[in-house]
Amino acid sequence: MVQHYKEALPPNDYPICVTCGTQYSEPRASCPVCLDERQYVPLSGQAWTTLSRLRSGARRASVHPQGPGVLGIGCEPKFAIGQRALLVKAADGNVLWDCVPYLDEELIDIVNAEGGLSAIAISHPHYYATMVDWAREFEVPVYLHTADRQWVGRSDPVLQFWDGDRMELASGLVLYRPGVHFPGGTVMHWDDDPDGLGALFSGDIIQVIPDFTHVAFMYSYPNLIPERPDVVEAAAELLAPLAYERLYGAWWDFILPRAADRIVQDSATRYLKFTRG
Fold first, then answer.
1. Could you list the residue ranges that cross the membrane (predicted)?
2. Is 154 helix (H, G, I), strand (E, B) or coil?
3. Out of 21, 145, 255, 256, which could bridge 101 as a Cys pair, Cβ 3.0 to 4.6 Å?
């Protein structure tokens, strides 16, 4: 059984930033994630909500298949950044890749009907969301790269920090740290997906773009700050040995269905050409 901290606020009343969806352990005036140059505070100013308010009836669960053995999880209408999480039906148990702020009884029932969770792994701080609530509900650990530890808004023993560039999460599932977008920016490789061709889960560490022929590497997406060329070059080198046909991006249906490993390498080459001249 997972051990938890005793916290002062009632369940579901921890403050959640309306702009980025990050949950904090106590009320505060500002959101550090949004004050960072990779995110933003809207002109209307800082605003807060709670999981109780999100569950009050205006939203409901949104669950749709995203690929073989992969189920997308989110809410309608979308909230904050609008990403969707992915339930990956791996051999050793379901893994939730990335996280969303919304969690209600319908979602809990759906995930349990699929076999529950064995672990949660998250690509970067913009998707930390209500990860502690998810982990407590399904009694599983959350794996985060230690390089991004400073961005955790609500500490809990369910959070497990890993170091280095590679960590085996389970049989067939390995976490890699390309370090794009954030120093701990993480992707997950699935080498025994149902098609047997491999898949890469990238969040927006590697961003699928609208023409689906290339991917992008950005330090900040909303503020259009490109990633440093040396970081992109090192990321491409780290991922070069991996084989994967599909790549699952951060948004609903933003998926490269074929030749994704070649597309990532070609995109890195193109990026370095334009940024280095």
1. none
2. coil
3. 21
Q: Which of 85, 49, 121, 35 is nearest to 252 (CA)?
A: 85
pLDDT in tens, 262-271: 999 999 999 9
Q: 229-239 and 260-276 are packed helices; what angle lies between their axes, rounded to 10 degrees?
A: 160
Nearest CA to 243 out of 178, 168, 192 is that of: 192
The verdict on pTM exceeding 0.90 is yes
Cβ atoms of 43 and 146 within 8 Å: the answer is: no
Q: Kindly report the length of the chain.
A: 277
Closest CA to 247 of 192, 194, 219, 207: 207
Token readout for 222 is: 């909303």
Q: Are 63 and 231 in contact (CB under 8 A)?
A: no
CA distance 215 to 204: 10
Look up tokens 């969690």; give the residue.
103
Q: How far apart are CA 5 and CA 213, in angstroms?
A: 46
Q: Is the CB of residue 43 less than 8 Å from the CB of residue 197?
A: no
